[in-house]
Amino acid sequence: MYNKDGVILKVMDGLIEKINKPIVFIGMMGCGKSSVGKAFSTRFGLPFYDSDDEVVDVAGRSISDIFETDGEPAFRELEKDTIDKLLNHGACIISVGGGAVTTPAALASIKAQGVSVWLNVDVDALLNRLSGDTSRPLLQATNPSNILNSLLEQRTPLYEQADLCVDVDGRNVDDLVMHIAEELKRIV
Ligand code: S3P
Predict the structure, then answer these.
(1) Cys-Cys with 1: which of 12, 104, 114, 153 at CB 3.0–4.6 Å?
(2) Has residue 7 got a pLDDT over 90?
(3) Residue 59 has pLDDT above 90, yes or no
(4) Strand 115-120 vs strand 48-50: parallel, antiparallel, or unpaired?
(5) DSSP SS3 for 92
(6) Contact 89/47 with Cβ under 8 angstroms?
(7) Which residue from 174, 123, 121 is spatially nearest to 145, judged by alpha carbons?
(8) pTM score, two decimals?
(9) How many angstroms is it from 29 CA to the middle of ligand 1?
């Protein structure tokens, strides 16, 4: 682990060996799970997986198509199976779709087999990040702000079950990687 000047921080030595299981990033769409997860995986030399990408690969269709043709429950089933497979990859980084935690079996597997990190972002920041997005079927409505507010309200008690809850606001990706590593070191 390096700080901004490239100095190795000895305090991070052995962190991944100690955790020795998947680190799973959870949180609302647009919260930065994939970018922070990828940066974290690069810093620690771990493989990175994104459950949405895996679902798309396995199904051979886009998430929008799966939602439209088969419905959200079918997507959640595929998502749960995908997460179960990814959790068997040993030490790695996994970013899961924002709604994965709403499937009780998926949340239970994440809690049992991984170390979970919730990236908490407020709705205004999410709206900024997601403005113009056409890839998230749940946001294709006249009032994405209402949708995000209501999803965040429903999901907060689920996200709060993470091993680590991190406020993203005011931190860039590098700061987040460092902060998460330090916090993980504290709790594992
Ligand atoms: C969803 C989030 C998306 C994707 C799908 C549903 C959700 O993933 O799984 O559109 O219910 O919040 P990201 O959180 O990676 O955008």
Answers:
(1) 12
(2) no
(3) yes
(4) unpaired
(5) coil
(6) yes
(7) 123
(8) 0.94
(9) 5
